[in-house]
Amino acid sequence: MNYEIIGVAVLWTFLYGYIIVSAIDFGAGFYNFYSKLTGDDSIISPIIKRYLNPVWEVTNVFFVFFFVGIVGFYPDTAYYYGTALLIPASIALILLAIRGSYYAFNSYNREPKLSWAFLYGATGLLIPASLSMALVISEGGYIIESADGVRLQLEELLFSTYGWSVVFLAVVIVLYVSSGFLTFYAARAKDSQALHLVRRWFLIWTLPMLFISQFVFLGLREHNREHFLRAQDYWYMFGLSLAAMGVAVYLIWRKRRFGLAFIMIMLQFAFAFYGYGISKLPYILYPYIDINTSVVNENMAFSLTVAFILGLLLLIPSLGMLLRLFLFDKDYVQGKGDNKY
Amino acid sequence: MEDVVLGRVLTASTLGFHIIFATIGVGIPIVFMVLEFLGVKKKDAAYLTMARRIAKGYTVTVAVGVVTGTIIGLQLSLIWPDFMRLGGQIIALPLFMETFAFFFEAIFLGIFLYTWDRFKNPWHHWLLNIPIVIGSSLSAVFITTVNSFMNTPAGFNMVDGELINVDPLAAMFNPSTWVRVFHVVVTAYTTAVFIIAAIGAFKLLRSKFEEDREYHKKGLKVMMVLGLVTASLTVLAGDLSAKFLHEHQPEKLAAMEWHFETEDNADLVLFGTIDEDTNEVSYALKIPSALSFLAGNSFDTEVTGLNDIPDDEQPPLIIHYFFDIMVFFGMYALMVSIIYFIAKFSKFDEHHPALLYAYVLTGPLTMASIEAGWFLAEMGRQPWILRGYMRVSEAVTQADGLGITLIAFVLLYAVLGVTTIYVLLQMFKNKSAAAERIEIYGEDYEGGRLQ
Fold first, then answer.
1. Model pTM?
2. Which family does it belong to (chain A) (predicted)?
3. A54-79 burial string, b = 16+ CB within 10 Å, else e?
C-alpha cells in the first residue's frame, strides 16, 4: 500500500479540520474582545460563549493530532523542524498555552476580566500568524542543512514578502471564517441583533480575503516557482474555491440559507487547501523531506493506519453527538434553559 | 550550562508542572463518577452538588493540563529531535493513540459539563462518566507505554545503526509496560482522592460556612473509603515495581537503594545521607535482608550492586532521596486512611482537629510523592534517553537558544500556576455548598430530573 500517500492525506485532512475549527475559535476570541471595546458585547458575547464552552478543548486536540501524526508518519520532520524551530515553535506554544488557560480562567472565574479577555483575543490573531510560518518554511529556502547541522535562516524569513503575505492570509482567514460561522450560529439562535452585527463583519472581510489570496499566489511565484507552476496544473481546484466563495458571499449578502453559506465557506477552503497541498507534493520540507523517502517503516505505517481507522470509528459518532447536542439543538443554541454552569 | 543540562532542566520543568495536572486529570474523574453514582442512587442532592463542584474546578485544571500536554508533546521534538526521529520509527503508535483517547475524553467532558439537567433519566448523565474515565485513564496508559519503552526498549533490532524488524506492538507492550501502567494509573487515582479528602478536611477546620459541615463529612468519608482501596493498590504497585527493576533494570534499583556490592541478603536502606566520594552511608535505617526479599520474595535473592555497572552507565545516587520521599509520603496516606476508620469504628472522633490536620496533609504529600516518583523514574534512567541505545547527550538539539527558552517556559508555568490557584480559590469563596445545592436542587430534592 502507498502509506506515504495515506499518511499525507490523513494529516492534511486533520490540518484542514484544525484550520476551520481553530479559525472559528481564534476569530471568536478576537470578536469577543473587540465587541467589549465597542460596547456590543452584550449582543454578541452570549452567542460566542454558548458555542465555545463545550468545544474549546476539542479544537486543541486537532492540533496535537496533527503534529503527533506527522512525527509518526514522517519521523524526519521531528529532526528538521524540531531543530530549526526551537525558538519560533516555543513562542507559538507559549501563546497557545496562554490562550487555552486564560479562556478557561475567564469563563470560570466569578467575574470575567477585560485583561484576560484581551489575552484570549490577541493570541487569537498571533497564533495563526506564527503557525502559518511553518507552512512558509516548508516551501524551502529558510531551513538549510550544512556540516554544522540544521539552521533556520531567520533574517530571510522575517524579510520575505511571501512569508508576510501568508501571515496576513492566515489572519484574514481567521476573521472571515469565524464571522461566517457566527452568522450561521446567530441565525440559528434567531438572534437578529447579533446576526446583523456578525453579518456585517463577514461582508467587510470578503474583500481583503480576495485580495490577499491573489497576493499569496504572486508571492509563491517569486519564492518557489516550481510549486507555483504545479499549482497551475490544478487551476480548477482554485476555480472551484472561488466559485464556492461567490455562492457563500451571495447567500449571506441576500440573507438566505446561512447554513448552506457556511458549508460553501468550508468548501472554499477545502478546494484551495487541497489544491495547494496536492501541488506541494512530494515535499513536506523542500528539498529535505520528500514523502517517498521519509515515510516511516512499513510496520509502523500499517499500525498507524489501523489505529487511525479504529480511532475514527470511535470519534465520528462521538463528535456527531457533541454537534447534535450543542450545534444542532435548537433549544441550546437559542439559550433556552441555560445550564447553571 | 551545557545544552544537555539545559535541555534536561527544561523537560523536567515542563513534565514536573504538567504531571500535577495530568495526575489530577486522570484521577478526579473517578471521584466525580463515584459521587454522582451515590447522588443518583441515594437521591441525595449533596453528593450531586459535590460532583458538580468538583467537576467545575476540574475543568480549570484540565485546561492547564491540555495546554501543558500540548507543550510537552511538541517540546519532545524541539529539545530531543534525534530521539524523536528514532523513536518515531518504533514508538509512534501509542503516542498517536493517546491523541485519540484524549480526543474521546475531551468530547465527552464537554458534553458532561453542560448537560447536567438535559436528560430525563439522571442515569443517562451518569453514563457520560464512563467514556471520560476510560479516555483519561487510557491517555495515561498510552503515554506510560512510551516512557516504559524508553526504560526497556523492545520491538526492533539495530544492525549497524540500521533499524530492522520493527514491531510497534512489541515496542508498546515492552517488558516494563504492565508494571508501570498499573503504578501510574493507581497512584493518580490515589492522589486525586486524597486531594479531595484534604480539601474536605481543610474545610472542616476552616470554613466560614457552618452549614456545610455535614456535606464535608460526607465527602471525607467517601474519599477515605476510596483512599484506603487505592492506597493499598499503590503499595502493591510499588512492590511489583521493585521486583520488576530487579529483573530488568538492576542499575536503577541499585542506585536508588545505594546498593554497591552484588550480594544476597541485601539490606534495604531507608533515609540517610551519602558521602559520594567514599560511598559511605550515614544516619540510614537499614533493614537486614529486606532488599533481597523485596526484589525476589526470598532472602537469598542476589541483588546486583552498582559496582558491577560500568561507571558511565550508573544513574545518579541522588535518586535515593526521591525514593524515600515517594515511599514515605505514599505510606503516610495509607496510614491516615486506616487511622480514619480505626477512629470511626472506635469511640474516638474521626473529625477531631488533630486528625483533620493529618488528613489535610495527605493531599500535598501524595502529590509530592508523585513528583518524587517521576524524578526517581527519569533520573534513574540516566545517562540514557533510550536505555542501551541512545544517551541524552546524543539526543539533545543542536539549536541555539535553549537558555532563553527555559526562562520563558519557567515564567509561563509560574504565571499559570498562580492564576490556577487564584481562580480555584475564587470559584468557591463566596458560595457555600449548601446554598448552591438549594439553588440548583431546591430544599426537598427527591431524585429525578429538575423541573
1. 0.89
2. Belongs to the cytochrome ubiquinol oxidase subunit 2 family.
3. bbbbbbbbbbbbbbbbbbbbbbbbbb
